[in-house]
Amino acid sequence: MLVEGTVETFDTAGVLSGRDGLPSELFMRDTPFTAVGEATRALAENARPAMDGGTLVGLHALTNTIADKISYTAGATTTETLAEEAVRSGSGVCQDHAHIFIAYARVLGIPARYVSGYILAGQGNDSHVASHAWAETSVPELGWVSFDPSNRQSATKEYVRLAIGFDYLGTAPIRGSRYGGGMEEMSVRVQVDQTQS
């Protein structure tokens, strides 16, 4: 099966202003993936002094702290890895970075949510070309602000948002179940290209 589409994007400097119909307080809810453990709390406390410069400064500092402390290593974790496990191991992928960021934001009382989508190849860490994940936090004076620790930046026009949720489980790009016998194999290849308008 081949699926193709065109998505028009524009740069918002990582900020989604306006309301999206969901109360930000909804995203204060912990999940098993984003639960704060001893290692996650220690990482959060390490980054806490940066919050003295303001919420945005602190959250951008957290983005860099996560990238520094949890190296992006393809295959280091699975879709079942918890934030706490990734922090303890010191390696993970974009999903883990997003979960860790969300856990920390919630420690500070800042609503945070998981975003799944795609990023244009060549705009960051190209090892996540099949899909990508990042986090958004609710900043009252701005709206939802994106943070991508894997690439040390906020979302740009090269990002395509597919879904938001509490964690990976609620935003998986492909998910389902199959009935019947036999063997099954799935291979996914995603190509994101930039077109001229």
What can you tell me about this protein's structure?
The chain contains 4 helices and 7 strands. It is α+β, with helices and mostly antiparallel strands and 197 residues long. It has one domain (30-169): C8orf32 fold (Roll), CATH 3.10.620. Strands 1-6-5-4-7 form a 5-stranded antiparallel beta sheet, with helices on one face. It has a two-stranded parallel sheet with strand order 2-3. Strand 5 (132-139) and strand 6 form a beta hairpin. The longest helix is centred in the first third of the chain and has 15 residues, at 55-69. The model has no long low-confidence stretch (mean pLDDT 87).
What is shown here, in short?
The chain has 197 residues and is of the alpha+beta class. The protein contains 4 helices and 7 strands, in the order E-H-H-E-H-E-H-E-E-E-E. It is globular, with a radius of gyration of 17 Å.
Q: Count the domains.
A: 1
Please state how the strands of the largest beta sheet are arranged side by side: 1-6-5-4-7
H-E string: EHHEHEHEEEE
Radius of gyration: 17 Å
Q: What count of helical segments does DSSP give?
A: 4
Return the average pLDDT rounded to an integer.
87
Low-confidence stretches: none
Oligomer: single chain
Can you tell me the CATH architecture?
Answer: Roll
- Give the fraction of residues assigned to helices: 10-25%
- The secondary-structure class comes to alpha+beta
Q: What's the end-to-end separation, in Å?
A: 27 Å
